[in-house]
């Protein structure tokens, strides 16, 4: 699945399974996508990257997924493995492209026989453009420009923190709902067992006090 400079919307409500979220980005290309990875499946993504470009891949298994782990693999255009991790819940990897070409990164759930996973990843390509066209000038920035740059950087950090907190909140909610379902089933099972045992005890006690009459048969005369 090729990616061409997409970024998810700022504060987004939680993403259900099978939802692909992507919104156009600016000069520094970035891709934030949440997708469902079935059991015994592998999903790969491709990105055209220029030589010398700094890139960051960050991923996390969220909402569903057994032990919340996947295999991740990143390759350069020559097929050389730049990053490879097995059964990771989350991780981040930063690299600088050594040559022009198509880079491939794959998420694998082939080790799982029946559990599907919901995976979120953020793939950033390049640096953010300067906030002001003249930001790289030799002269110093004005006090207003410096304040705007500081606020801009702080807001980007806030967005990143919000994204991670939403991921953790969604994962925690999923685990809580799963635990609540298990407790409910266990309570129903205990109630059924208690009812069966109670009925059994009633019949057992009743058999102790029942009047058993025996009949004698006279043999011969």
UniProtKB/TrEMBL annotation:
GO cellular component: COPI-coated vesicle membrane; endoplasmic reticulum membrane; endoplasmic reticulum-Golgi intermediate compartment membrane; ER to Golgi transport vesicle membrane; Golgi apparatus
Transmembrane domains' residue ranges: 183-205
Sequence ranges assigned to domain GOLD in this UniProt record: 42-125
Keyword Protein transport in record: yes
Keyword Protein transport: yes
Topology class, membrane: Single-pass type I membrane protein
A Pfam family hit: EMP24_GP25L
Entry similarity comment: Belongs to the EMP24/GP25L family.
Chain's role: Potential role in vesicular protein trafficking, mainly in the early secretory pathway. Appears to play a role in the biosynthesis of secreted cargo including processing and post-translational modifications.
Keywords, alphabetical: Cytoplasmic vesicle, Endoplasmic reticulum, Glycoprotein, Golgi apparatus, Membrane, Protein transport, Signal, Transmembrane, Transmembrane helix, Transport
InterPro entries for this protein: Emp24-like, GOLD_dom, GOLD_dom_sf
Compartment annotation: Cytoplasmic vesicle, COPI-coated vesicle membrane; Cytoplasmic vesicle, COPII-coated vesicle membrane; Endoplasmic reticulum membrane; Endoplasmic reticulum-Golgi intermediate compartment membrane
PROSITE patterns per UniProt: GOLD (PS50866), PROKAR_LIPOPROTEIN (PS51257)
Protein's GO biological process: protein transport
Cleaved signal peptide residues: 1-30
Organism: Indicator maculatus
UniProt protein name: Transmembrane emp24 domain-containing protein 7
């Amino acid at each position: 699945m090729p990616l061409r400079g997409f970024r998810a919307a700022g504060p987004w409500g939680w993403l259900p399974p099978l939802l692909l979220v992507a919104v156009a980005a600016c000069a520094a290309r970035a891709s934030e996508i949440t997708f469902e990875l079935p059991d015994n499946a592998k999903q790969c993504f491709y990105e055209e990257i220029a030589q010398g470009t700094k890139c960051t891949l960050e991923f996390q298994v969220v909402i569903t997924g057994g032990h919340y782990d996947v295999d991740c693999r990143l390759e350069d255009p020559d097929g050389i493995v730049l990053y490879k991790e097995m059964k990771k819940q989350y991780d981040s990897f930063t690299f600088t492209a050594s040559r022009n070409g198509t880079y491939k990164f794959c998420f694998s759930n082939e080790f799982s026989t029946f559990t599907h996973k919901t995976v979120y990843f953020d793939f950033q390509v390049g640096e953010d453009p300067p906030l002001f066209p003249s930001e790289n000038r030799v002269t110093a920035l004005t006090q207003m420009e410096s304040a705007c740059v500081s606020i801009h950087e702080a807001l980007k950090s806030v967005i990143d923190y919000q994204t991670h907190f939403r991921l953790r909140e969604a994962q925690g909610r999923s685990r809580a709902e799963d635990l609540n379902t298990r407790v409910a089933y266990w309570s129903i099972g205990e109630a059924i067992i208690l009812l069966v045992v109670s009925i059994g005890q009633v019949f057992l006690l009743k058999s102790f006090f029942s009047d058993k009459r025996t009949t004698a048969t006279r043999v011969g005369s």
